[in-house]
Design brief:
alpha/beta; Urease, subunit C, domain 1; TIM Barrel; six-stranded mixed sheet; six-stranded parallel sheet; globular
Length: about 400
């Protein structure tokens, strides 16, 4: 693959919530990874074959949707919708994480079937990228009868995480906790449904149930869509060290109140952002951007910190080599800018004002997959590409 230079960048958002804005105006990409970040004059650009002039707009890591109920390819029977994952690409999302293939038609609800479905989905999406989006499929749905040999096999076959606990026959902490320990033993990240009932078969989950189960992630802290009381949210924020997921298809009031608690408790490094769709709420291509707008414009989170919650925080949670603009990380990048007509002067201030920024470029592994988004408002500034022709997905 060619060496690529992104130059004339106005702002580089790192994805690292401890240092969200980087010095520099250029990023050098070598093949699928980031080779260097800094001032153009300080980078070794001798062998660069393609130059992307960002025209003083903002570059950030591609967003990671921490909560998506993928199904078959890029189709969901939940909403009879096709190309919904590719639609997320046009909202700046370059990675989607399955929270469990719960909408799979005829989903088996026994241990052998749950294991088979998780392996099938993990391996299928490893070979299939809708529009270029990296899908981490195979969110295991916990069913009664799963044992250590099952987890050993699933880990060997590429299953990396457990989907929302509570969507299968395992619901109570006394049943879930031993399986959670097994999952963690084999390197899996564990989600747990939190809050009220979302679909038939799910159940209300309290803060005490979450603590007794000990997952890695409090799924949809703000409800999916019905939230637990704020007193319960406070327990999860202040008395645990779990990752706290805020979703689009949840309760917006609880999202804001939770973010205020999280800021007060200095726990913003634990926040991750998801869509929680497809669901009864629908298919929301710009769900991650809308959630960033919500927590920034009404919750008082800076736009750069909000971006880090949807990138580096989630990558750290799932141990992914992406989500940060840093040497050696996968070159999953987006260019975004204040949209035409916004009061924002750039992408960050547009987010803080509650405006969806315009996406002007999406790259996955150093390959351009989309230019001006078909879903966001048009960005004020355009990226200019010079060098050998490159097909755009």
């Amino acid at each position: 693959m060619a060496k690529i230079l992104l130059k004339n960048i106005g702002t580089i958002l790192s994805g690292d919530i401890t240092n969200p804005v980087l010095e520099g105006d250029s990023i050098l990409i070598d093949g699928p990874t980031i080779a260097a970040v800094g001032r153009e004059g300080d980078l070794n650009t001798m062998d660069v074959e393609k130059v992307l002039d960002i025209n003083r707009a903002t570059v950030a890591p591609g967003f990671i949707d921490s909560h998506c109920h993928v199904c078959v390819g890029d189709y969901t029977p939940r909403q009879f919708a096709t190309n919904f994952i590719e639609g997320e690409l046009h909202g700046g999302v370059t990675t989607v994480i399955s929270a469990g293939e719960v909408h799979y038609p005829g989903r088996p609800k026994d241990a052998p079937g749950a294991k088979a479905l998780a392996i099938l989905s993990a391996r299928t999406y490893a070979n299939f990228r809708p529009g270029g989006v990296k899908v981490i499929g195979g969110g295991l749905i916990l069913e009664k009868g799963l044992n250590e040999k099952d987890f050993e096999e699933m880990a060997r076959e590429g299953v990396r995480h457990v989907g929302e606990i509570g969507l299968g026959s395992i619901k109570q902490p006394e049943d879930a906790a031993p399986l959670v320990r097994l999952a963690k033993r084999y390197g899996m990240t564990v989600m747990m449904h939190t809050g009220g009932i979302s679909i038939p078969g799910s159940s209300t989950v309290t803060a005490e149930m979450v603590r007794a189960t000990d997952p890695d992630i409090v799924s949809h802290l703000n409800g999916g869509p019905t939230a637990i009381p704020l007193s319960e949210v406070e327990i999860l924020v202040k008395e645990t060290d779990l990752f706290l997921e805020v979703v689009q298809c949840g309760n917006p009031l609880v999202a804001i109140e939770a973010i205020k608690m999280i800021k007060e408790h200095k726990a913003m490094s634990r926040v991750i952002i998801g869509n929680d769709m497809p669901s009864g709420t629908g298919v929301i291509s710009l769900g991650i951007l809308r959630t960033l707008n919500l927590i920034s414009s009404l919750g008082g989170v800076s736009g750069s910190d909000a971006v880090a919650m949807a990138t580096g925080n989630t990558a750290r949670c799932y141990k992914l080599n992406r989500g940060l603009i840093r040497e050696g990380y996968e070159a999953d990048l987006i260019m975004m800018d204040t949209p035409m007509g916004s009061v924002g002067r750039d992408a960050v201030s547009a987010i803080e004002a509650g405006d969806i920024p315009g996406i002007g470029l999406v790259m996955v592994d150093g390959v351009v997959k989309a230019q001006v988004s078909r879903n966001t408002p048009p960005p004020m500034r355009k990226c200019v590409i010079s060098g050998p022709e490159q097909s755009v997905g």
